[in-house]
Amino acid sequence: MLKPEEKIKRHRDLNWLSFNERVLQEAQDKTTPLYERLKFLAIFSMNLDEYFRVRVSQLRQMKRVEKSIRKKLALKPNKTVKEILKEVREQQEKFGKIYREEIIPELETAGIHLVHREDYNAHQEEFAHRYFKKIRKCINATTTSAFGGEELFLENNSLYFMVCFGDKSEFGIVNIPTDECERFITFSSETEEFKISFLDDIVKVNVPKLFPDKEITGIYEIKLSRDAELYIDDEVDGLLAEKIYESLQQRTDGQPTRLLYDSHMPEEDQKILRKRLKLGKIDMMPGGRYHNFSDYFSFPDPTNNPALHFEEWPTVKHSVLETTENYFEVIAKKDQSVHFPYMSFEYVERFIQQAAHDPQVKEIKISIYRIADESVVTSALLSALKNGKKLTVFIEAKARFDEKNNIDWGRKFEEEGAKVIYSYPKIKVHSKILLVSREENGELKDYAYIGTGNFNSKTSKIYCDHAIFTAYEKLTSELSRVFLVLEGELIIPRAKHLLISPFSTRKSFADMINREIQNKKLGKKAEIKAKMNSLEDKEIIDLLYDASEAGVDIRLLVRGFTCLVPGVENLSSNIYMTSIIDRFLEHGRIYIFGNDGKEELFFGSADWMTRNLDRRIEVIAPIYDEDIAKEFKDILEIQFKDNVKARIQDPTEKNNFVAPKPGEKEIRSQYEIYKYLKEKHAS
């Protein structure tokens, strides 16, 4: 058996690029409708922006650590960043090729033409000048010295033009106001062909008006990504909402991590811009003439052609929750499960609404990681307060990119009389839990909701998540203790059933993996099946390697990055791993341990990542209801059999698709799960 230090680990940041490559594969897939392929390009771009703002910026911070310490910890940030940039450049080239050689021609075949500035006809030129007059107040044009002087500041991820002059002692900066204006403008047309222009080009054609006395030699689009981390995660005394609120300014003026620029920009002008922004050569990333492809989420379809989009699926009607007028009555009799986006998030909303208006409900407690701006959930919680219910809301003030909205909502709840807790010292609260206390027969009875996804109706239409409503006292009593921990009334929540991070989850998972190892050595049935977003924790990976070496059959489904390398002889030959990228984003976590035929099944909010095991409040719940356990196992088995959208994860990292065997039926798991749930809930 290999020593832990000899066991192979992938670098998480490098393997993450392999995940984003899978997103790019979807954009290239000609069987995917055209506008959905555009969305995958947008997802790829959005993912990459966040990656540079968070992960690459963290590597850059590591460069500041004293060299002797970096060496001791085996940290090689410079080497890693260079490898990242090499891979990103290759992916960007592939991205551009897909866009130019596949997407654009197919849009034109569909009667949709992107018209660039140099191709404007007289009518479009006139339209561009008229439109510019309407938006002129949103545009700032400045001239700055090429060699120093006042600070040149570009906002994070905003679009600008660098305007080059004949006199190289200065240049111009013009913002492209995509926050105030639509990114894509449709020209009026009397034909069946539709002409669409980037806002960028409408601004570009009018740039000479902004610098009437200058000789303009070039106009090039640029975008600067800045560090997104607040760097206060390890405060000894915890994180106060006000402190985070005040720190949000760093989101716009954090350390630069990448300058994306039009690759046609002359080297002389690149150098001028780089020095004025105080960037290194490593921070410069050549790109196309347009940036922020995440805006393609809102690319217009003036044809309204359904063939260009995924066919809409009516949500599956839950056989029990759809018709009941009293959730408490049916949940008291039997646990109920829901699966998004196949089912509607309205089931969660109705449960909270019923709790808000039911005179027998005395108290509601909820943990929220990302709050939607205005939603049925927030309205129902406010109604609960107006109806005299006691409401405790735990709001994670450190949910990346949602801090401000979360804190704003916390203040609203406080103003209406709720008890609001913003953050738990040194730890994020990532669990998706709800507890309702209802007076029945003179006693309080608890009802719980435990899920893998956020309390957010918008994301529930995109993310594949699982959840259970339960009144099982052994679970609800332990969930009540989790909330007491959040409220500061308990230090450690005793639990025999729930796995609760950072208190018991790591040990429980380790014990169950070790039990499978021992069962295999004793000749008993031993297997591990798991589905998660990411796999990174060193201890868990080493245990999985040990289990593989012992002969335990291990089947993993990991959507995102993984530091475990499956399929390596004498290390992980008994581990088979796939990843699925399809029309919805896989987000659920399910864990099954064979236990010599007496299977144990868990689901919840935690991945096998160190942060989920040690630095977050997470809830992983066992599934005791036999019917629901079978449902979860069936769903997982369908995904294990996917041979259309599943990619093999192996040492090559080539993201090869799982291919159907001769005579084997094609199984596209998300489509099969939808059919499975429709059939099950048809009665």
Polypeptide structure, described:
The chain is α/β, with parallel strands linked by helices. Strands 14, 18, 19, 20, 21, 23, 24, 25 and 26 form a nine-stranded mixed beta sheet that branches. Strands 10, 11, 12, 13, 15, 16, 17 and 22 form an eight-stranded mixed beta sheet that branches. Strand 19, helix 17 and strand 20 form a beta-alpha-beta unit. Helix 1 packs parallel to helix 4, helix 12 packs parallel to helix 13 and helix 16 packs parallel to helix 17. It is globular, with a radius of gyration of 27 Å.
- Portion of residues in beta strands equals 15-25%
| CATH-level-4 superfamily name of the largest domain | Polyphosphate kinase middle domain
Shape: globular
Round the Cα radius of gyration to an integer and report it: 27 Å
- In the CATH hierarchy, what is the architecture of the largest domain at level 2? 2-Layer Sandwich
Number of helices: 20
What is the CATH first-level class name of the largest domain?
Alpha Beta
In total, how many beta strands?
26
**Based on helices, strands and strand pairing, what is the structural class?**
alpha/beta
Q: Which fold name is given in CATH as the topology of the largest domain? A: polyphosphate kinase like
What is the assembly state of the chains in this entry?
single chain
Q: What's the number of domains?
A: 4
Q: Which runs of at least 5 residues are low in confidence (pLDDT < 50)? A: 230-252
Q: What is the typical, i.e. mean, pLDDT?
A: 90
The main pleated sheet reads as: 9 strands, mixed
